[in-house]
Amino acid sequence: MPDVSALTLLLSLSFLAISIGLIYILGKIFLGGFRASFGGLFERAAFRRQSLRCQRGDELLERGDLTGAVRAFGSAFFLKPIRHHSSLLTEVGKYHTGLLNRLLTVADEFDTGRLSLPALADTDRLLAERLEIQLDAFRERAGESRPSTDGEPRLKENERQLRIAIDRLLSAITSSGEERVVYH
To answer: Which candidate, 42, 99, 132, 179, has a CA 20 to 30 Å from the CA of 31?
Structure first.
C-alpha cells in the first residue's frame, strides 16, 4: 500500500508541474495578444499623461512661476519606447519640439542670454536620434530593413544620455535665472 501512495503522490506532482507550465504558456499567449491589441492604447494614455505635465508647465508659466514651469517642462518629456503605433512617433517629435520651445521661452523670460546652447543642441540631437532608433524598429518589424539586435540597448543608452542632457539643460536655465540681479 505505501508504494501506491508514493506513486500517486509522484504522479500528482508531475501533473501539477505540467498544469502550471501550461497555465504559464497560455498566460503568455493571452498577454501577448492583449498587448498586441491594446498596447497602443496604453502608449497613447501614457503620452497624454505627459502632455498634462506640459499643460501644468504652461499654467505655471502664465502665473509667472518660471522655476516651477522649468520643473514641469523637464518632467514632461516622453521617453517611453513606442512599439505599437508609428504615427505616435510624429506626435511625440512635435511635442518635444514644443517643449524645447517652451524651455527657450522660459530662458528668455529669465532674460539671461547665457543659456547653454550646447545643452539645448544635445537634447535636440538626442531626441531626434531617439525617434530614428524607434523608426528603425518599426521598419524592421515591417520587413523594410534587415533585423538588428542592438535596437533596445541603443534605446536605453539614448534614454540615459537624454536624461543627462535634459538635466543639464534645466540646470542651465534655472541657474542662469537665479544669478539674475534686479535693480530698483
So the answer is: 132
